[in-house]
User: Fold these one by one.
Assistant:
Number 1:
Amino acid sequence: MGSEGGQGTGREPDEAAGGGAERPAFDTSVAHIARVYDYWLGGKDNFAADRAAAEQAIAAYPDIVFSVRANRAFLARAVRYMVGEAGIRQFLDIGTGIPATSNTHEVAQSVAPESRVAYVDNDPVVLAHARALLTSGPHGVTSYLDADLRDTGRVLSAAAETLDFSQPIAIMLMAILQHVDNADNPYAIVAALLDAVPAGSYLALSHPASDIEAQAQGELARRLNQTMAEKVTLRDRAQVARFFDGLDLVEPGLVRVPEWRPASEAEASSPAGLWGGVGRKS
Ligand SMILES: C[S@@+](CC[C@H](N)C(=O)[O-])C[C@H]1O[C@@H](n2cnc3c(N)ncnc32)[C@H](O)[C@@H]1O
């Protein structure tokens, strides 16, 4: 995808993602989190408005570029744990993002090729990349749904076309719930998703923190909220822990994302302003 674009640039939707003849137009003059995040990760799927917002955020909190990499690494470690140690074979990954390193299906299917992954995002640029998310190995399945996390009924009914809800499922909410403000009751959304899956299922979640590098991250959020389409609500550790209510937290619990089962001490000590954890429904 080109990195320069004018207002109203459109993309053909991916046929395999259920797209029809419609061309989803998107306004490149407004920054969106999927593209801002892509810029922080060093990707090329972003436009001038995204880069400007991303740079303003970097100026407020320079460690954001380490933070997002640590988040992707946490995602990969959490998936590897859930497939390799917990025996999970089904994933509902909501807030997929633009494909980057170690996408959920790649990590899961590298351990268990039969793994099934249902991806969900509401950004048209992610939809335009859906083909890259649907490159499952011959033994597994991936699907992509263009939907809003807040519409849990639609998310769950569409996911049921790919996933078997009588068997354990890992629900993944990586760096997305900060875009659900309190008025939309994020705790009820997570509870509705967890209600739909059987015992033995997992929740893997990361969330930008209001109590790590509080001043710098607060300023980052303030700047993003002035320009970006999706607003940001930072939450503290106790508020993030509430998403795991009723679940058994896997060791080491809710920690800064690089401290969750790191591969090395160097990895554990990376700067990162997100809380992350994995919980099991019993
Ligand atoms: C910061 S990115 C995180 C991407 C990926 N989960 C990761 O951790 O690397 C957040 C993603 O959530 C998506 N998103 C934000 N709000 C959403 C909503 N209400 N419904 C569905 N997707 C949403 C954005 O489009 C974006 O792709």
Number 2:
Amino acid sequence: MTTTKAYKGIAMEGIIASWYAKTTVKDLNRHKLMARQMAKLIPAHGKVLEVAPGPGYFCIELARLGDYQITGLDISKSFVEISRRNVAEAGVKAEFREGNASDMPFPDDTFDFTFCQAAFKNFSQPVKAIAEMYRVLKPNGTAVIVDLRHDASPEEIEREIKGMGLGRINEIMVRWTFKQMLLKTAYSLDEMQAMAAQTPFKKWTIDTEGVGFQVRLEKQA
Ligand SMILES: C[S@@+](CC[C@H](N)C(=O)[O-])C[C@H]1O[C@@H](n2cnc3c(N)ncnc32)[C@H](O)[C@@H]1O
């Protein structure tokens, strides 16, 4: 059955978006480390697209590391507002637009680098989203997808949650969300492999990292 919903599961609007922004700001280290890792893959002054940036914390940390032209595309009106506010408060430059990962409002060959973290499992048309990353990338551009692995063990999940530095109540809520929602929609490495193979990308690698995986796809010239 095909779905016409732009997202899988609950839409992240209003108080859900605000709760997510307040909870994950305590986990800024994740974004700092990831921004440092990703900056190594981006050319100087490169054009960067973050697909589904949520509150925009990764964009902010990346903007602090170099003179990149950063754009975020999110389906949630609330997150577009929150990320614009967060970027203004941080005093860095990044633009945010409302739109669907599976039907991006950008011309072909626009970006040097696309990044998508903790969001891919929420896309109702994931193969189309990867194909859109290919379309909007310039030749020789790279797309990175980071997300939770379906087979992450209970011990790995617990270690991840403890590392977030949350209070007791938020820790309980995040643990419940992992078990009842996130793990159910998360993909296995084989599923990621099969989806990438249905897109125009010809070259990619998949690595596991803690509770998640990182897929790096290259658009060959
Ligand atoms: C769990 S949040 C992750 C946010 C951020 N990447 C992070 O690491 O904190 C998932 C994000 O995916 C967005 N999203 C879900 N479906 C989408 C779609 N089809 N197109 C664009 N954004 C989408 C949501 O609005 C939300 O911002």
